Amino acid sequence: MLVLADGRFPAGGHAHSGGAEAAVAAGRIRDADSLEAFCRGRLHTAGLTAAGLAAAAAAGLDPLVLDDAADARTPSPALRATARRLGRQLMRAARATWPSSELDALAAARPRGAHQPVVLGLTARAAALGPPDAAYAAGYEAVSGPATAAVRLLSLDPFDATAVLARLAPELDQVAARAADAARRALDEGPGALPAASAPLLDIAAEHHATWSVRLFAS
Amino acid sequence: MHLDHADNTYPPRHTYGAPRPYRPDGTRRALRIGLGGPVGSGKTATVAALCRVLRDQLSLAVVTNDIYTREDAEFLLRNAVLPPERITAVETGACPHTAIRDDISANLEAVEELEETVGPLDLILVESGGDNLTATFSKGLVDAQVFVIDVAGGDDIPRKGGPGVTTADLLVVNKTDLAPYVGSDLARMARDARAQRGELPVAFTSLVAEDGVRPITDWVRTCLAAWTAAPV
């Protein structure tokens, strides 16, 4: 669990800001407080959705069905492309770290990459972790990426950015619990039971960001 | 069915790691050479010069790691040193050394995708974003690495050492034509480099001179000969 959630896990995340670069440019992230607001919003929308998908994959739902469900929950083509690229990079690291026939099968079925949260959940499963662990990893990633990026983009005090993450911990607990609960229900009811919270501003900003010619982060 | 994964056949690809020197079909894959070094030392110019000399004899491709733009890739495209489908830019999220050393996944994707789309290739050059003296490539990404410094950056750099200067398979000291103007002592640089590197080779280059990249192309050819001669 710690290895999987470690920001240094070599799965390509360091080159992505989780929308923080666009938000910084638009003036929506300026300091630690606005970073916290951004991360809170992302945690309860994109983070919750990703956590649900990851928990469901860890619980054993068909990853191809979940991959379709992830597409349905990702209206922005730029973010779909990002999710698949990161999914493929995570797949590479995951298969080297926790070899598994289920990971091999998903890699074969989605050679261009499956959505990252689905790969993350299946990776957790390969590492013998449960749905709550997968949900935690996905939820934490949803906020740790933007926090790290904000430090680089704004020269924000790294202690302040880390404190933001610590303050979000109780909410991360709630998001992970909701996601794991939804994953349990999805085993009977199908992927419709999974959270589908969306963040239109993140989607719109991601589309803009993809057109920039000068940027530090890939997304 | 989705447009972005309409092809459900599993293209054979390296699943992870680069140390395996074979393509999935068992043939020897392209030799991968990394070029790193400080900002402005002439990495992109070196890549361009290498491409001009080698492109008629070898099947070549280039991966650039720009720090915050696509300028290096665009420089190569503008100068038409290779067709655009043979040049890929990787974005590094403000951390060029991470992308070539600690988390090489995006670069591995780029390298393998080039082999799939324009391959089979003989040689892939992976150019790092300009960085500092500690930048080195992971052995999981490249087979050999070149560290490019220049005389204008100060003739004490070889003495200072650092992983790039000390361990690179080839150290290039570029812009030797500028040495008289910036007061750099080439003999001292050569002496210091030898002290830091022992028997590892050092090439002094001036890319503005006729065939100025020759010492590097010779070294690349030697590497390629060893690579193709190695038992599969």
Automatic annotation (TrEMBL), chain B:
It is found in: Cytoplasm. The keyword Cytoplasm applies. GTP binds at residues 37-44. Residues 1-24 are annotated as: Disordered. Keywords: Chaperone, Cytoplasm, GTP-binding, Nickel insertion, Nucleotide-binding. One of its GO terms (biological process) is urea catabolic process. Residues 33-202 form the CobW/HypB/UreG nucleotide-binding domain. GO terms for molecular function: GTP binding; GTPase activity; nickel cation binding. It holds the Pfam family cobW. GO terms for cellular component: cytoplasm. SUPFAM superfamilies: P-loop containing nucleoside triphosphate hydrolases. It comes from the Bacteria. InterPro entries: CobW/HypB/UreG_nucleotide-bd, P-loop_NTPase, UreG. NCBIfam families: ureG. Belongs to the SIMIBI class G3E GTPase family. UreG subfamily. Homodimer. UreD, UreF and UreG form a complex that acts as a GTP-hydrolysis-dependent molecular chaperone, activating the urease apoprotein by helping to assemble the nickel containing metallocenter of UreC. The UreE protein probably delivers the nickel. Facilitates the functional incorporation of the urease nickel metallocenter. This process requires GTP hydrolysis, probably effectuated by UreG. This is Urease accessory protein UreG. The gene is ureG.
